[in-house]
Amino acid sequence: QVQLAESGGGLAQPGDSLRLSCAASGFTLARYAVGWFRQAPGKEREWVSCIAITEGTTYSADSVKGRFTISRDNGKNAVYLQMNNLKPEDPGLYFCGADAGSCFPDYGMDYYGKGTTVTVSS
Hints:
The chain is mainly beta. Helix content is 0%, strand content 48%. The chain contains no helices and eleven strands. Strands 2, 4, 5, 6, 9, 10 and 11 form a seven-stranded mixed sheet that branches. It has a four-stranded antiparallel sheet with strand order 1-3-8-7, with no helix packed on it. The termini are far apart.
């Protein structure tokens, strides 16, 4: 069964760090571009970051550039999102998606996980 499972969310204070994991089962994540998305209550889904298949090229939204880092561990069939210097505008449901083509598919990614919740509060 093809599945993406996120973990690592939780409660953090502004300035703290969290590391989110996106683990795949039923397929080889190394053969897919993997993106992270977030959605805050009452807001639209926002693209956060993506790591491509080829050479591990990464892309990040301006709002997280310099603070969030996406990476792969092919041995663990997982992708991570290291989030540093969390800000009050970062909370939301964070979920990952995988696409066999690219980081920016025309019709959405092939697979999505259910997400993990990040809360930032002092």
